[in-house]
Design brief:
The complex is a heterodimer. Helices cover about 70% and strands about 0% of the residues of chain A. By secondary structure, chain A is mainly alpha-helical. In chain A, α6 (about 140-160) packs antiparallel against α7 (about 165-175), α9 (about 215-235) runs parallel beside α12 and α11 runs antiparallel to α12. Helices cover about 75% and strands about 0% of the residues of chain B. Classes of the chains: A mainly alpha, B mainly alpha. Chains A and B meet through α1, α2, α3, α12 and α13 of A and α1, α2, β1, α3 and α5 of B.
């Protein structure tokens, strides 16, 4: 089914690891040169930046071509649907040819073709079921489109191995219940059930491979499904998109317990298996639980809540770091707070560069004096001291 | 064949030593698992939450807390942070220096953010500079630059560069497209100052590893200003000529020094500017679409050729 062989996928992943080990100073450049020929695959690849450009322009060309056909033929109604379905088939065929003949692997171009095939299939399906017969829709268009998106994205994953395709597939099928007429809490339960099923399946599949290909892919699917279960059961996380948080009291209490239990279970499992993706997802879920706790309890937010939250995070980080670093060789139970690979520093360095522009109030521009002192009805009453700064 | 089997093979054939094999085996087997990134993320979010909460509390309760208490509390935090950093940090070096511990980077970042809150509060309550308020940004910029270089901290360097952008009047955090001609010129001036400052410091071998940060910020500021200049229809040809020149330079230098983010900037911003200029008078949809198809193919052909020349490792 898959266009790339298991050996190719394994060699590519191992090559990536070996390069990282070299950058981190664990192995020498000469050793890398001796290893690389053993991992050579006859596939054409490129770096992330050129891949992004090729993907972006691939999407641009395909979209413009299909639109041009629609404009030239003055397409409307059924013809647009047909153009979408035909375009989806052509895009898929183009991707097949690019991989088969040009031996492209994560080159951007073939990815653009696959992604646009999925997009056109979804648009075509949506338009098809949106058609009314005697004033009635054939079927719920949004629900149908989500199911088609999930199926086609999953086919794209099976054929080309794009993890983002399977992520899209899981999200589309997971959120499909929200397009039904079921009561709000049943929608959430159904959605959580779908994510839980995906989670179970991916965990079972992962057991056979651990971190070796395709275990790494199942790992990502598992973490995404875990996050999905949490997202739909936390009633205060995205209520605007997932419907009202007004649900039966029993269900409300159930979700409150769940949003505390899920991160805890996730962290425990991740630490046991030393599973980084699941660990990061569970930690993020834990933070979101803390943030949404007051809303859950209908308690009034206080200005010092972020201070306590910040102090708690800093304390946890410092205690964990200190505890780990006091172990033998800075290691306890196989965990260390030290950096091992250079990629860790690179990620932080990149985040640091962006952070100043995202968090510095000054970056919003110097406010004028009148802007600065405009009254916003501060709560103190004396001396006209009501304003903001 | 698993990764471990490969490692064993490389050890047997003498490609890697027994010691290297042991290190790599522990990594692959996850006998040594680093939570470095996770701890860093918690420290970062913790600092942001703490400072956000401080700002919110001060803003809400300044009247009941009183100026003396607020300024004393903020000054105390600032002094404590700076004392810690100066006592723990290694001696200054022009070269890249690793922090002695994870915490130092975030304590100095906390100090800088608290400093910003305190300055804002001072002006809010005592109106010292009034209409010259932006000069605080210049003062913050100078302080942050000093601290960024002293402690080799990219978080603080980024704060310094964003404060400088604020002083130039560029609203970066709201993702607003620069609108007026004055702001476009301010954007270009800012980009020039940042690029020249970065180049000057690089030439003097002062923290050479910061140079790329300067270039990323300068390139994005300049490109956004130029593209918005073309879109604004006031002297579009001047902006267009400058954009084409800068795009070409960015792509060439990006390829030469293997910094491919600059190839992306040059290609994408250049293409957007070119398209705005060429399609300005287009009225029909079909020629516009044909333009996107033809130019898109041309770009892909060039990039694919470049990708083939560079191979995967680039």
């Amino acid at each position: 089914m898959r266009k790339y062989t298991e050996t190719q996928e394994k060699n590519i992943r191992l090559e990536r690891l070996v390069r990282e080990w070299t950058r981190s100073g664990i192995i020498e450049a000469q050793q890398l040169e001796s290893i690389l020929p053993q991992l050579r695959v006859e596939l054409r690849r490129t770096n992330l930046f050129l891949r992004l450009i090729l993907f972006a322009f691939g999407v641009l060309i395909i979209s413009a071509s299909v639109l041009l056909v629609a404009v030239i033929f003055k397409a409307g109604g059924n013809m647009i649907q047909m153009i979408c379905f035909v375009s989806a088939c052509i895009c898929f065929g183009v991707a097949e040819i690019l991989v088969e003949r040009r031996r492209l692997y994560r080159f951007g171009l073939e990815e653009a073709a696959v992604c646009m095939a999925v997009v056109f299939a979804v648009i075509g399906s949506f338009l098809f079921v949106s058609d009314t017969i005697n004033g009635m829709h054939r079927w719920a268009p949004e629900l149908f489109a989500l199911i088609v998106a999930s199926v086609t994205a999953f086919v794209a994953y099976l054929r080309f191995g794009y993890v983002y395709a399977v992520a899209a597939s899981v999200l589309c099928i997971g959120f499909a219940p929200f397009e039904t007429d079921l009561p709000g809490f049943v929608q959430r339960l159904a959605s959580a059930g779908i994510f839980a099923a995906v989670l179970t399946l991916s965990r079972i599949k992962r057991r056979d491979y651990e971190d070796e290909f395709p275990g790494d892919e199942y790992n990502i699917i598992q973490s995404l499904a875990w996050a999905g279960v949490y997202a739909v059961l936390n009633l205060h996380l995205i209520p605007k998109y997932l419907g009202s948080s007004v649900v039966p009291p029993t269900f409300y209490s159930f979700t409150y317990i769940t949003v505390w239990a899920l991160p805890a279970i996730g962290i425990a499992l991740a630490l046991r298996d030393k599973d980084r993706t699941l660990l990061d997802v569970s930690l993020a879920m834990g933070l979101l639980t803390f943030i949404s706790n007051k809303a859950y309890l209908s308690a009034m937010p206080q200005t010092w809540d972020p201070i306590l939250f910040g102090v708690a995070l800093l304390t946890i980080s410092l205690v964990v770091r200190r505890w780990l670093s006091q172990g033998q060789d800075g290691l306890r139970l196989g965990f260390t707070a030290s950096r091992i690979l250079r990629s860790d520093s690179r990620a932080i360095s990149m985040a640091a560069t962006i952070s100043g522009f995202a968090t510095n109030p000054a970056a919003a521009g110097a406010p004028t004096h009148s802007e600065m002192f405009k009254s916003e009805g501060g709560r103190s009453g004396g001396a006209g001291a009501t304003g903001s700064f | 064949m698993t990764t471990l089997e490969r490692l064993n093979g490389w050890k047997e054939t003498g490609i890697i030593s027994a010691a290297q094999h042991e290190i790599l085996r522990t990594l692959v087997h996850k006998e040594r698992f680093s939570v470095f990134v996770e701890i860093n993320a918690f420290l970062y979010i913790g600092v942001l939450a703490l400072v956000g909460g401080l700002g919110w509390t001060v803003q809400t309760y300044f009247n009941s807390l009183g100026d003396t208490f607020i300024l004393a509390a903020l000054s105390l935090i600032l002094a404590a942070c700076l004392t810690y950093c100066f006592s723990k940090a290694p001696a200054y070096s022009n070269l890249e220096t690793e922090s002695p511990n994870l915490v130092l980077d975030y304590v100095i970042y906390l100090a800088c953010l608290v400093f910003s809150v305190e300055l804002s509060y001072l002006e809010f309550r005592f109106e010292i500079l009034r209409d010259h308020w932006p000069n605080y940004l210049l003062f913050s910029t100078a302080t942050f630059f000093g601290l960024a270089y002293r402690f080799d901290n990219r978080f603080v360097l980024s704060l310094a560069l964003s404060s400088l952008a604020g002083w130039f009047g560029i609203r970066v955090s709201r993702f607003e497209f620069i609108k007026s001609e004055q702001l476009q010129l301010a954007g270009l001036l800012y980009a020039t100052v940042v690029a020249l400052a970065g180049a000057g410091l690089f030439q003097r071998r002062l923290k050479k590893h910061f140079f790329e940060t300067y270039l990323h910020v300068a390139a994005n500021a300049a490109f956004v200003a130029l593209v918005s200049g073309i879109a604004s229809e006031q002297h579009p040809l001047i902006f267009f000529a400058m954009l084409i020149g800068l795009s070409g330079l960015s792509i060439l230098m990006g390829i030469r020094f293997r910094r491919f983010a600059f190839v992306v900037y040059g290609t994408i911003y250049g293409y957007i500017g070119l398209s705005i200029e060429l399609l300005r008078s287009a009225r029909e949809l079909a020629p516009v679409l044909a333009y996107f198809i033809l130019t898109g193919i041309a770009v892909i052909a060039l990039i694919a050729k470049l990708a083939r020349r560079l191979g995967r490792t680039a």
